[in-house]
Amino acid sequence: MSDMKIGIIGCAGRMGRMLIKQVSETAGCTVAGGTEAPGSSFLGEDLGPLAGQVKLDAVVTDDTAALFDTVDAVIDFTSPKATVQHAKLAAEKGKILVIGTTGMTNEEQAEINAAGSSGVIVQGANMSLGVNLLAQLTRKVAAILDEDFDIEVLEMHHRHKVDAPSGTALLLGKAAAEGRNVDHDAVADRGRDGITGERKRGDIGYAVLRGGNVVGDHTVMFAADNEIIEISHKAGDRAIFARGAVRAALWAKDKPAGTYDMMDVLGLGD
Ligand SMILES: NC(=O)C1=CN([C@@H]2O[C@H](COP(=O)(O)OP(=O)(O)OC[C@H]3O[C@@H](n4cnc5c(N)ncnc54)[C@H](OP(=O)(O)O)[C@@H]3O)[C@@H](O)[C@H]2O)C=CC1
Ligand SMILES: O=C(O)C1=N[C@H](C(=O)O)C[C@H](O)C1
C-alpha cells in the first residue's frame, strides 16, 4: 500500500515544524507539501531544514488550494480565521483535514462543523493521549461529586500563546459540565477582576497563566470545604501533539465524511 501523502499548513510555525519531523519519521506517511500565509518570509524554503531534517525537495508555498489537490490529508495548526477557510477547502475537495488550531468563536466552530458534510474533519483542542484521558477522568469525577465541590480549571502556557483560556482548558471545563449534566456556557466563569462578588455555586471557573516557554500545563481542581482533589497533565514536548495529529490523519483514511474528535481516534469513548 502506498504512503499517505500529508500536507502541513502553517509549516514554519512551532507546531508546523514538529509536524514535518513527525510525519517524516512515521511509517505509512510522507510529507507532500506545506504552506504559510501569503507574504511569509518562509515561502520557497525547503521543508526539511525547517524541522532540522535533510532536504525533502518540497518547498513552502502559499497555495493552500493546490496543496489540497496534491495530498491525501492536510494538518492545520494555524489561526481560527485561516482554519475556517481550510475547512471549507476540505469540504469542497472532499479531503481529510486534521485541525489542531484553538480559539474559535462559536460562529467559527459552526462553519467548521458544516464542513463535515463533505470533508473528513478531525479536530482536537489537544492531540495528546494524556490530556484526552484527563478529559475522560474529569467527566467521570464531575459526575460523581455534587456542587459542594467547586470546579476550577487552571492552565499555564508559553508567553507567545494568543488565545485564552486554552482550547484544552475549555475542553476540560466542557467535560466537567457534561459530567454534571449542565450547560457549560451558562456556568463558565472565564475571567475574574475587581470586586467579583462571591463565587457562584455550580460555576466552572478558569484561571490562566502565561510565561516562559511552558509547553502546556493543565489542572482540574475540585475544591470542597476541607478537601481538594486535583488532576493534572503537564506537556514536556510538542512532539506529543504532533504524534497525535499524525495518528489522527492515518486513522481518518477511508472514513466517511463527518466531524470526528480525538476520543474517536484514540478509542476513548465511555
Ligand atoms: N491541538 C493541539 O494539540 C495543539 C494546538 N495548538 C494550537 O495550534 C495553533 C498554532 O500554534 P503554534 O504552532 O504554537 O503557533 P505559531 O504561531 O508558531 O504557528 C502558526 C503558523 O501558522 C501560520 N499561518 C497563519 N495563517 C496562515 C495561513 N492562512 N496559511 C498558512 N499558514 C498560516 C503562521 O504564520 P505567521 O506567523 O506569519 O502568522 C505560523 O507560522 C494555536 O491555535 C495553538 O493553540 C498548539 C499546540 C497543540
Ligand atoms: O498554543 C499552544 O501552545 C497550545 N495550545 C493548545 C490549547 O490551546 O489547549 C494545546 C496545548 O496546550 C498547547
Nutshell version of this structure?
By secondary structure, the protein is of the alpha/beta class.
What does the secondary structure layout of this molecule look like, with pairings?
Blueprint: E1 4-9, H1 14-25, E2 29-35, H2 47-50, E3 60-61, H3 64-70, E4 73-76, H4 80-93, E5 96-99, H5 106-114, E6 120-123, H6 129-144, E7 150-157, H7 167-180, H8 184-187, E8 188-189, E9 204-210, E10 216-224, E11 227-235, H9 239-252, E12 258-261, H10 262-266
Parallel strand pairs: 1-2, 1-4, 2-3, 4-5, 5-6, 6-12, 7-9, 8-9
Antiparallel strand pairs: 7-10, 10-11
Helix pairs in contact: 1-9, 3-4, 4-5, 6-7
Summed up, the domain count is: 2
Hetero compounds: NADPH dihydro-nicotinamide-adenine-dinucleotide phosphate, the ligand O=C(O)C1=N[C@H](C(=O)O)C[C@H](O)C1
Could you give me the name of the CATH homologous superfamily of the largest domain?
NAD(P)-binding Rossmann-like Domain
Q: Under the CATH scheme, which architecture of the largest domain would be assigned?
A: 3-Layer(aba) Sandwich
Given the structure, what is the number of helices?
Answer: 10
CATH class of the largest domain: Alpha Beta
Helix content: 25-40%
Shape: elongated
Q: Which percent range describes the beta-strand content?
A: 15-25%
Largest sheet: 7 strands, parallel
CATH topology of the largest domain: Rossmann fold
Total strand count, please?
12
Structural class: alpha/beta
Distance from N terminus to C terminus (CA atoms, Å) equals 33 Å
Organism: Sneathiella chinensis
Binding site for NAD(+): 10-15, 57, 100-102, 124-127
Subcellular location: Cytoplasm
InterPro entries: DapB_C (IPR022663), DapB_N (IPR000846), DapB_N_CS (IPR022664), DHDPR_bac (IPR023940), NAD(P)-bd_dom_sf (IPR036291)
